[in-house]
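Lecture 7 notes: from sequence to structure.
We start with the chain below.
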Amino acid sequence: MREKLKPMSMGIGAAAVLVALVIAANIWPRASTVAAPSPASTPRSAAVAGRPISDLIRHSWQRPLPVTPGMDRWGSGFLSLASGLLDYGEEPGPTASRSAVTVADIDALEVTATVETRECAIGDVGTYRWSVEGKDTVMILAAMSPDACAARERALAGTWVRSDLPAAVDGEPALTPGTHLTSAFDPFGVPGTPGQLSFTVPEGWNAVEDRPADVVLLNHLPGAAPGQSPTDSLVVLFAQPRFTAVENGAPCGASNDAPRVGPDVDDIASAIMARDGVVSMPPTAMTIGGYDGQILDLRLSPSWTGGCRTPDGQIAAVPFLLGVEPQIGPTVGIMPDHPLRLILLDLTGGRTMAVAIVDIGPGKLLPFEEEVAAAMPIIESFQFPTAPASSPS
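Predicted C-alpha cells for the same chain:
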C-alpha cells in the first residue's frame, strides 16, 4: 500500500520551477510503505507456492562491508528482486548473474539457474528462507539446504540492506555510498522493467524521484544558513526530452513542443544553442555506459529580458526542454546566476536521454564548477544493466 505524496518545503524558490514542475518550490519525498505483519508469524502453507514474490522483499538490496561490526564480513554486492527475477553479483552490469525465482513458501524462495547464472549449471536449484528486520529495511537469506550451486549460496546467504529506500523527510541523506539501481526509470521504453539504470554515489546524495519518465538526485550539502535549503544542486535525468516552444510571459514549463525540432541528440543540441537568450560553449563529445552523447555548458545571456511565469511571479529565464510527461515531468532551462550543464545521450533506436546538472541553491555553498565536479563522477558511473540486446551496452 502506498501513501500519497506530501510536499516538503526546502526553500528552493523559483529556480526549481525550471527543474521539475512537481518540485517547484518544494522537494517531494517518495511514498513510504505501510508495514505488513511479519511473514514469519504466519503459518506456512504449500498453497502459497506460485504466488508473486512478497512486496516486502521485492526491492533492490545491497551488502555493505561489514553489515554489523563484530559479525562476519559479508562480501560487498547487490541483489534485486524488483523485476520478479533474481539479479545479483558484486555490482550491476555485464558481470552480474540472474536466476529464475518462485515462491516456495510464505517465507521461502526457490531459485533456479539459467544460462545467465554465472558459475552454476543450468537447472541448479536452491531454496532460501527469508526474513526482514527493522522497518523492513534489512533482509536475511538462509539456505534451507545446500544450494546445488555453491557459488550462488556464497553470494546470496547472509544479511542485506535495502538500497531503493525513499529520500528521508528529515533532510538526512537516504542513499548509502555505493551502487544503486533505479526501480521505475524507463529510458528504453520497456515499461515494468526495473533496474534499467545503475549509478554510484558518494556520501551526501538523496534520490528524491524515481519514476518511469525521470530520476532526480539531490546533493545534500551541509552548512546552509538558518532558513535556507542545504541543497545546492540536482542531477535530473529524463527520457525522451522534448524541445519546447516558448512564449514570453507564459507559465514556465507550460509549453507545446517546438515545431520542426526532432528528438535526436544533434537536433536538440542545435536547437538549444540557436535559441535566443542562450549562451553556450561548443558541445563536447562524451560516452556514458557505452552510449555516445554531447555535453553542453549553458548560461543566460546578460542582455536577455524575456522570461516565463512562476507561482512567485515573472522571472528572466529560457526554458527549453520538457520531459515526456508535461504535467509532472521535469522542465529544464536557465536563469540569471543559475548556469546549467546538459548531457544528451543517444540510446539508439530513436531514443534520447537528457541529464542536467542544475544549480538551485538559494545561498551559494559551492561555485557551480565545483557542483559539476561533484556530480560528474556519478554520471560517469551510469550503466544500463537491462538495456535491449541490440544496444551498445
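Points to note: The first strand starts at residue 8 and ends at 9. The radius of gyration is 22 Å.
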